[in-house]
Structures are given as C-alpha cells and as structure tokens.
Amino acid sequence: MSGHSHWSGIKHQKEITDKKRGVVFSKLLMAISASAKSDPDPNFNPRLRSAIEKAEENNVPAENIARAIKRAKESAEGVEELIFEGYGPAGVGIIISVITSNSNRAISEIKSILIKAGARWADPGSVKWAFETPKSFGGDWIPKHLIPIEEEDAKKLSSIIDSLESHDDVQKIFTNAE
After folding, report:
1. Pairing of strands 120-122, 131-132
2. Distance between CA 156 and CA 90 in Å, rounded?
3. What structural domains and CATH numbers belong to the chain?
4. Which contacts (CB < 8 Å, 24+ apart) does range 129-137 have?
5. pLDDT of 111 over the 70 cut
6. Its pTM surpasses 0.90
C-alpha cells in the first residue's frame, strides 16, 4: 500500500489522546493553584488535598503539582474563581464554575460560547436562587427545583454543556434540568 505508515496512524491517535489529557491536566492544575492561594499546605487545606488527590488519580506528574502550588504561593494575582450564570433552552438554569488567570477574557469567552450555542447570559444571582449554595467553591450546586425538558431541548442543552466544557477555564457546570 503506497503511502501507508503504521507510525502515522499511531501518531494521530497519540495526538488526540495527548490533547485530551492536556485539557484535563490544565483544569486540574488550575484548581490546585486556586486551592493553594489560601494555604499551600495540603495538611491544613482539605480543598487543596482533595484537588491534589484528584490530580494524582488522573496521573498528573508530581512536578507539575508542585509547580502549581509554588505558582499560587508566589503570585499575588494568581488565579481567580468565578461563578457565571445563564439560561438554556426551556428556561433551564446553568451555573458555570470557572478558574481563570484572566477574568476579562473568561467573561467574554463564556458569554460568546453561551450566545453562539443559543443560551442567554444571566445577571449574577438570577439563577443561583434555584440551587442550594455549596459550602465551598469546589462544592456542587444542587438544584432546588428541577425543570422538565423535552428531548429536543435536552439535545440543545447537551450541546451547550459540551461547548462550555471544551473551554480550558471551565471547571464544572450545573443545571436544574430534569
């Protein structure tokens, strides 16, 4: 077979795998940096300890974890933890947990993703009322009231969530869809 190379096939598969792994690594390391801002010692910071454990479960190298903690200690600015709100199809509330080093960029990019996907940006507090407030930033927003949606709206919502999850700064997404 002319032009066929076994290594070429492996190379393309490896590129895809490495790209996915890189996205997971960057999200986990941002969470570690954000957690280490308050106290860089995992013995006294349970949030940092759980972020490190999650990173180790995903095979993040120890040097990368140490660098993320060091970066949080050294930088005065560092990373910010933000919560964005929006409305999806059928009025479903969407809460987006973000950790970013540039809040202005994150705001504009998340707004753009929501608008392109057919969702609406919401003012702070306009969606949170429908969820129980988590005890810490990394906690889950549990919906108080579930909204039943049709199959077509569920597909649109799934598309919105996929678009948001592809953004490096997005950590978690919560909805009150049934």
Report:
1. unpaired
2. 10
3. 6-74 (1.10.10.200), 80-175 (3.30.70.980)
4. 130/93, 130/176, 131/93, 131/95, 131/174, 131/176, 136/47, 137/34, 137/47, 137/81, 137/97
5. yes
6. no
